Amino acid sequence: MSSGDELEPLHDDVHSRGRWSLEHVGAVFIVFSLFAARLWSPAIWELHYVPVISPVYRQQEHWLADRARVLAVSAHVGCGVLMLLSAMLQLDEPTRSRWPWLHRWIGRLYVSAGLGALLSLQWLRSASGAGSARHGDPLMRTFIDCSSVAWLGATAYGIDAIVRRRDRRSHSRAMLLSAALSSQPILQRLLNALLLSPCAMTIRCVYCLAAHGEPPWRARWGAPDGALSLLLAAPAPHDRGDARASPRVFSLDGYGESEQAAFGLSAWLSLLGVLGAACWMARSPENRRRVLGDEDAALRTGGAAEAGRSLVDAAVRYARLARRLSSWAGARATCGVRLRCAARGAASALLLALLLVPLPLSLLLFGLLVVGLAALATVLPVAVASTVATPLWLAQGLIWTAT
Question: In whole angstroms, what is the distance from residue 274 CA to residue 149 CA?
Answer without folding.
Answer: 14
